[in-house]
Each structure stands twice: as C-alpha cells, then as structure tokens.
Design goal:
single chain, 400 residues, alpha+beta, six-stranded mixed beta sheet, 10 helices, 27% strand
Length: 400
C-alpha cells in the first residue's frame, strides 16, 4: 500500500483503511486530525485525515503503510535540529543497517534515546537514599509490630538504602521497556537490551507524563536532564494517555514551533550569549489605574538577552512564513507579529528581533520604531550542520 506524505499545511484528505489501521490511527490523534466517515462497504473504513497544526512526524500502520507529516520549512536534518533543541547526543549516521537520515522519526528517535541512555550509563547511574520496607530475619532500621505470629522470626523492617532505585532511573527503565517492542533494527535492539541490563535492579514502573512532573532535578542529578527530556518526548510521541490507560503505537510527532524555539535558544548559547532568559514573564508593563476587576496583565517574550531588569534585546520566534498574501493578491509582512514585537520593545525599552525559519521568501531588514531597532530575519534550516541558524546566532551575539 502506498505511503502517504503530508506537510503541516496540507488540507485533510479522504483515505480507505482497514479496521486494524483505523485502530492505530485512533492512537495517533495527538499528531493527526482523524475524522471517521463510516464503512467503505468492503470491510474497511473511510477516514478523512490531515496534519494537526504545528506537528510533524510519522505513524506506521499495521501492514507497513506509513503516514509522514513533513515540517512546512525545509530542514536539512530533523534529528540534528532536535539534538540541538533538546541538548541530546547526536544520533549516529547509521545504526546497523538503519540509516537515520532516511528513516522515519520513530526509528531515529529510538536510536537517539538509546545513545543518550548509554552516555548516561557511562557517567554512572545516580544512587540515592530510597525508603524500603521488607521482612527480614534481623533488625534493620525501624521495625513495625508483627501482627501475625506465624511470620516470626521475620520482622517487618523499614529502612533507607543507598541504591540506584531512584525515580529518575525508574522512569528511564519504564520508557525503554515501553518503547522496546517498536525497535525493529537488531543493532538498536541490542543497545536497548544492554541499557536495560544496567537497570535490572531498578523497580519497573508503568511510566506516564505525571511521573516526569514529579522528578526534581538538582545539582546531583542534572546530568539526567537530556535523557529525561528525550524520554518524555518519546513518551508523548508514543501516544501515552496516562498511567491508568497507557498505550503505545509506532508513532512519533513533535511540535515544530517548540523545537524551533528550543533550537534557537541553544544556538545562541553556543554562540556565547550568556545572559539569555527563556520565556520571562513581566507583570509590570501594564499598570491598573481604576475599574473592576483588577486582573494582572503579563507579557511573555520568547527570549530576552540581558538581565531581567535591564534587557538589551528581545527575540520573538515564529514558526510561520515571514510574508503573507493580502486581499489584493500582494505580499506583506505579518503585521500581528510585528505589532507584538513592537509592544515588547516598548515595554522593555530595548531593541527586538523577529526570527523566522525560511519557508518562502528570504528576508533580513531593520526598521526604527519608537527609538528602537526592530529586525526581521529568516533563517535557512536546510543547510548542513544547521549553518544558517548558527550564523544568525553568531550575528546576534556579535552585537553584545
């Protein structure tokens, strides 16, 4: 059966699918829009499917048919962009016979996660004090009253043990075991089995997104951040619902605007920008004078360079074409984006930059607004080693 290739901006289309394919598509609703139209009269079903706004990725249906949603901006290497965005290890060019550049996002994500976990294992698993309770023939820690004399001489003991059975290790094992059935390549499967062998003494859990929210990162376990961020991304892409109804499908979708924002921030830091603040919230730009209710109004730019109280540059990142058609058929800037940045520069009293990925027209222009410079620039992501993004970051860093 033919593969289906879409881009983020394509309209929905009607397709005929089997019953098993329809079940798999229902699990991919986090990345696709699926409207069920009824039976096709031949034991299958008719569906209208299309990309969900902002998502790119793929889902493999039973029988091997694949639906792939490509980013609306041309990206030379999506794995490389994700590597920069989430500060993970770059996936190898090949893993056995699996070529990452020609593989689906599902496949290269598995390769990348396995590599990241192996790097973590090389640095050593974190151990911590974990509360344990078990029946022992000797006293250890605190003992609880033995209510059943038949259990003697074993005692009910509670104690803290310094072991690797910590929440972050439990999460990694749970995610690896959850995704392992989707690993088809033998070399990658060996990497997964090897990683799981090191986590054999860790309590297996059924991971959910709520588990990630409960993990606290500090100076002792900061080196887990890349692995956990990538594991969470994998879990979200696998179609996890919650701990009570977790399921997986060979699907992987990412929010491209989120990847774009994270990658731009990482490129600026690599270029030497030290005072970079992501998503700062300012509640003092709007001051309430009178009337009811007195509700707070905040502004939240994507990136600010400088100290919070002394910003030097505000950067707004948009995952959209820089130009749009007007009602007369001409082309013009996206005024709402420009107005938003103008508000930021006025409120923060600094210059600003609108940064777009190159989709249609290349642009690099500067305006003067209310004594502040506003620059609008596109970045070509379809270059090896993300050269366009890194050059833009270096140009910004050179201003300071």
């Amino acid at each position: 059966m033919a593969e289906i290739h879409l881009t983020e901006t394509d309209p929905a289309r009607e397709e005929t699918v089997t019953v098993s394919e329809l079940r798999a598509l229902r699990r991919a609703r986090h990345g696709l829009v699926i409207d069920e139209l009824g039976d096709d009269g031949h034991g299958g079903a008719r569906v209208r499917l299309g990309p969900k706004i902002g998502y790119a990725g793929s889902v493999t249906l039973p029988g091997g048919r694949r639906i792939t949603v490509h980013p609306k901006a041309e990206v030379n290497s999506l794995p490389e962009l994700l590597t920069l965005a989430y500060r993970t290890l770059a996936p190898p060019a090949r893993a056995g016979t699996a070529n990452v550049e020609s593989a689906t996002p599902t496949e290269w994500l598995l390769v990348q996660l396995a590599g990241e976990v192996h790097d973590l294992l090389g640095r050593g698993l974190r151990r911590g004090y974990v509360e344990r309770r078990e029946r022992l023939p000797f006293v250890r820690g605190r003992t609880r009253p033995v209510l059943n004399p038949a259990q003697l001489p074993f005692l009910d003991c509670e104690y803290a043990d310094f072991i690797a059975d910590t929440p972050e290790n439990q999460l990694l094992r749970g995610v690896l075991e959850l995704l392992a059935p989707a690993v088809q390549n033998r070399a990658v499967r060996r990497a997964y089995d090897d990683a799981l062998s090191y986590l054999g003494d860790v309590t297996p859990i059924r991971p959910s997104l709520a588990h990630f929210d409960r993990v606290q990162l500090n100076r002792l376990n900061q080196h887990y951040r890349p692995s956990l961020r990538l594991a969470r991304l994998a879990l979200e892409g696998a179609g996890v619902v919650d701990s009570a109804g977790t399921f997986t499908a060979p699907a992987y979708f990412v929010l491209m605007w989120q990847i774009w924002e994270n990658a731009a921030a990482a490129a600026l830091r690599d270029a030497g920008v030290a005072d970079l603040i992501e998503k700062p919230r300012y509640a003092n730009a709007f001051v309430h004078r009178h009337g009811w209710p007195n509700l707070p109004v905040t502004i939240e730019p994507d990136l600010v360079i400088g100290r919070r109280r002394e910003p030097r540059l505000v950067i707004d990142l948009k995952w959209a074409p820089v130009l749009m058609k007007d009602r007369h058929g001409g082309r013009r800037l996206r005024n709402p984006h420009l107005y938003q940045l103008a508000s930021y520069t006025t409120a923060l009293d600094c210059d600003g930059i609108l940064l777009y990925p190159l989709m249609d027209d290349a642009l690099d222009t500067t305006y003067l607004f209310n004594r502040h410079r506003i620059t609008i620039r596109t970045v070509d992501l379809n270059q090896p080693a993300l050269a366009g993004l890194r050059q833009a970051a270096e140009d910004i860093a050179a201003r300071f």
